[in-house]
């Protein structure tokens, strides 16, 4: 997957599900439920023990119909770990030029995490496929996103961090290429909670995002 392919994938789906927990024992089960509900873009955080094995398992289980990336990529070594596990894209929490360079060498597109206008612009100039605006809720949510887009309308933004169901439409209406959700979507499913409840939440998130699928 190259930069433009990832952008197209985000436009086609508008939603990224973030898998992060104390361990990855339920990642594969949750991914299956999310996929059945229509979620096609998944991010497994490398800070979760067992995440790399889970990425490989999910890739084999869901095949090419799902896009499985590695999140919380902070070091150059993380890039290689993720690539070797079969991740199709990377997500970083920060702007690290060395990580971006290595990702390009390994042929992996990056959703690069940034917050300030300077960081967002830098991430884009370093070749990010999209920029993750994180943590969006903590700095004003939709108002902050609109303020950022005004001077930088060409940069594809993915608001992340405290994105709830009711926020999906607001962010997408304001020009985000997609949204990414962790706890508001996953709930306690990764810690032994109800997978049936996860299926319900996932269907609701997918329905909210579907209204904006394929719009540019």
Kindly provide the radius of gyration, computed on alpha-carbon positions and rounded to a whole number of angstroms.
16 Å
Strand order of the largest sheet: 3-2-1-8
Largest sheet properties: 4 strands, parallel
Q: Mean pLDDT, rounded to whole units?
A: 96
| End-to-end separation | 20 Å
Structural class: alpha/beta
Q: Tell me what portion of residues adopts beta-strand conformation.
A: 5-15%
Q: How many β strands by DSSP? A: 8
Please provide the ordered H/E string of secondary-structure elements: HEHEHEHEHEHEHEHEHH
Shape: globular
Give structural notes.
This protein is α/β, with parallel strands linked by helices and 216 residues long. It has helices at residues 3-13, 27-36, 51-62, 76-85, 97-105, 117-125, 142-149, 165-173, 183-186, 195-210; strands at residues 15-19, 41-45, 67-71, 90-91, 110-114, 130-133, 157-159, 179-181. The longest helix is centred in the last third of the chain and has 16 residues, at 195-210. The radius of gyration is 16 Å and the shape is globular. The mean pLDDT is 96.
């Amino acid at each position: 997957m190259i930069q433009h392919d990832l952008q197209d994938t985000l436009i086609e789906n508008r939603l990224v599900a973030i898998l992060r927990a104390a361990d990855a024992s339920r990642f594969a089960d949750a991914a299956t439920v999310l996929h059945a509900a229509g979620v096609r873009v998944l991010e497994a955080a490398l800070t979760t023990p067992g995440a790399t094995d889970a990425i490989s398992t999910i890739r084999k289980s869901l095949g090419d119909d799902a896009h499985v990336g590695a999140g919380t990529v902070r070091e150059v070594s993380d890039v290689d770990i993720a690539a070797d596990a079969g991740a199709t894209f990377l997500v970083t929490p920060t702007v690290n030029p060395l990580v971006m360079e290595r990702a390009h060498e390994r042929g992996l597109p990056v959703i690069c995490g940034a917050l300030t206008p300077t960081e967002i612009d830098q991430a884009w100039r370093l070749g990010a496929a999209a920029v993750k605006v994180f943590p969006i809720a903590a700095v004003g949510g939709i108002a902050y996103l609109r303020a950022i887009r005004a001077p930088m309308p060409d940069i594809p933004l993915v608001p992340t961090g405290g994105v709830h169901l009711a926020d999906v439409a607001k962010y997408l209406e304001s020009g985000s290429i997609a949204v990414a959700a962790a706890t508001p979507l996953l709930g306690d499913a990764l810690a032994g909670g109800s997978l049936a409840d996860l299926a319900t939440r996932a269907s609701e998130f997918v329905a909210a995002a579907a209204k904006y699928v394929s719009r540019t």
